[in-house]
Write a structure and sequence with these properties.
Elements: E1 7-12, H1 20-36, E2 38-43, H2 45-48, H3 55-71, E3 80-83, H4 88-98, H5 103-107, H6 110-118, H7 125-128, H8 130-139, E4 145-146, H9 153-170, E5 178-179, H10 214-222, H11 239-251, H12 254-265, H13 271-297, H14 300-329
Parallel strand pairs: 1-2, 2-3, 4-5
Helix pairs in contact: 3-13, 4-8, 4-14, 8-9, 10-13, 11-13
This protein binds tryptophan.
Tryptophan (TRP) binds next to strand 1 and helix 8.
């Protein structure tokens, strides 16, 4: 028999609607991973509580993010897909790991410092210990590979530290998790206004969401930043133009891309035409995802079935790890 598949764990934020950057970054990675690894993917609803979201909004957010991931190709039969708050074992491991996490190191985390700056009135302990909860998410399944963006690598480094500390103090239990992606074709999509990466918090009009209507997509692409065109043959592309080509490569045919590449290189390009073509190809690309996600999102019975199935499998793995952790720590009195 072949060796056991490696364990992959990743948390999906439950806030906001997914956009093109998420799709071609995280989700496509997940979809490739589901074929090769033993994947645990979950909606990180506890993590979202650091910002005190409206209780009435939570269910919708969780349903939405599950629906969008499934519509994008994540297969609940292939991966263990669950909601974090369905796995109480994570909370218990979080408590244990908190005893191994030091205030000083937590305060130094750049994402924490950013949050403090953005929200000085809500610097709660959950925010400070966010990397501890994230570590519990991963270590509860003894996860090895974690598909995350650059901004999360520091959190993962802390996970390795906590794993090591636990192992040194109590005996080996946790492998040290490492960041993982299929690197070579990791695609960075910039905002359509040319300002930084496409993100849900910045300019909404420069971000294409998976639930945008055809017309919304057309409008946004029409407004994308361009200029008066290249001044000399075979010029280097400004980054906002290169970005339009990057996006076009993802959704248009190779012939279409070549046509506009040639036009750029011989200075005959008309960005209006390019954007029109891109808008149609983008609309055709997003449409089936949007329609499928909408249908799934409103099918509570289906989603509940998926969530239960995922929770059952995830709890099995989580309970086994927690049993070992308790034993190693001496919490076995019966
Ligand atoms: N912190 C991650 C983010 O903001 C989400 C997350 C929570 C996560 N727990 C995780 C990612 C565990 C990987 C593994 O995107």
């Amino acid at each position: 028999m072949g060796k056991e598949k490696e364990i992959v764990v990743s948390g999906i934020r439950s806030t906001g609607i997914l956009h093109l950057g998420n799709y071609f970054g995280a989700i496509r990675n997940y979809i490739r991973m589901q074929e090769e690894f033993n994947c645990y993917f979950f909606v990180a609803d506890w993590h979202s509580l650091t910002t005190h979201p409206d209780p009435k909004a939570l269910r919708g957010n969780v349903f939405r993010v599950l629906a969008e991931n499934i519509a994008s190709g994540l297969d609940p039969e292939k991966v263990i897909l669950y909601v974090q708050s369905d796995i109480p074992e994570i909370a218990e491991l979080y408590l244990m790991l908190n005893m191994m996490a030091y205030k000083g190191e937590l305060e130094k985390v750049p994402t924490f410092k950013d949050k403090v700056r953005q929200n000085p009135d809500n610097v709660n302990a959950g925010l400070l210990t966010y990397p501890v909860l994230m570590s519990a998410d991963i270590l509860i399944h003894r996860g090895l590979k974690v598909p995350v963006g650059k901004d999360q690598e520091q959190h993962l480094e802390m996970s390795r530290n906590f794993a090591q500390r636990f192992n040194n103090r109590y005996g080996y239990l946790f492998p040290e998790p490492v960041p993982f992606n299929f690197g070579d074709d990791l695609i960075r999509i910039m905002s359509l206004d040319g300002n930084g990466k496409m993100s849900k918090s910045e300019n909404q009009n420069a971000t294409i969401y998976l639930n945008d209507t055809d017309d919304a997509i057309r409008n946004k692409i029409k407004k994308a930043k361009t200029d008066s065109g290249p001044q000399a043959p075979n010029s280097e592309k400004p980054d906002y133009i290169a970005n339009l080509f990057t996006i076009m490569r993802l959704v248009s045919t190779p012939d279409t891309v070549r046509h506009f590449e040639d036009a750029f290189n011989n200075c005959s390009i008309r960005y209006g035409d390019m954007k029109k073509q891109l808008a149609e190809d983008m609309a055709a690309f997003i449409r089936p995802i949007r329609e499928k996600a909408e249908a799934i999102e409103h099918d509570a019975a289906y989603l509940n079935r998926i969530m239960r199935m995922g929770a059952e499998k995830a709890r099995e793995s989580a309970a086994a790890t927690l049993r070992e952790a308790r034993k190693l720590m001496g919490i076995n009195f019966y």
